[in-house]
């Protein structure tokens, strides 16, 4: 059974006619053409589908869209643009914090959420936050450098 669901994504309001149990990821990618969040495991375990809901990390592959209704959803696209990336995105670019890039969405969104809560976290805190995001390529050293760079507040160019 479908019904209209109101979603606020990256500062814009959307109404979609869906089954309220449809995973938020499917709405973001298929209906709103936002391809930052990726489908990885489908179980909320790998982090590729990570978005922020009211500033907190959420796994959109297993979150029914109705649970995000009337809340602020932020995707990778809502942080910045290729021409004007936010500080976390810019740090990942500067430190080449990706190989294949599939995990990148989850890594960036997790670091962004952490920095909103703790603007200057210790390295151990960053490691703890990122431990639930999987990277199969082995870009962990570059990812940590990017996260530490973003946390330092140092200018990125």
Explained architecture:
- A hairpin with a 2-residue loop joins strand 1 (3-9) and strand 2 (12-18).
- The chain is an alpha+beta fold.
- The protein is built from five helices and five strands, in the order E-E-H-E-E-E-H-H-H-H.
- The mean pLDDT is 95.
- The chain has helices spanning 24-31, 87-94, 104-117, 123-130, 140-152, and strands at residues 3-9, 12-18, 50-53, 56-59, 72-74.
- It starts with a strand and ends in a 5-residue tail after the last helix.
- A five-stranded mixed beta sheet has the order 2-1-5-3-4, with helices on both faces.
Major sheet summary line: 5 strands, mixed
CATH topology of the largest domain: Ubiquitin-like (UB roll)
The main sheet orders its strands as 2-1-5-3-4
Q: Tally the helices.
A: 5
Strand content: 15-25%
Q: What CATH architecture of the largest domain would you give?
A: Roll
| Name of the CATH class of the largest domain | Alpha Beta
**How would you state the average pLDDT, rounded?**
95
Radius of gyration: 15 Å
Number of beta strands: 5
Ordered list of secondary-structure elements with their pairings:
Blueprint: E1 3-9, E2 12-18, H1 24-31, E3 50-53, E4 56-59, E5 72-74, H2 87-94, H3 104-117, H4 123-130, H5 140-152
Parallel strand pairs: 1-5
Antiparallel strand pairs: 1-2, 3-4, 3-5
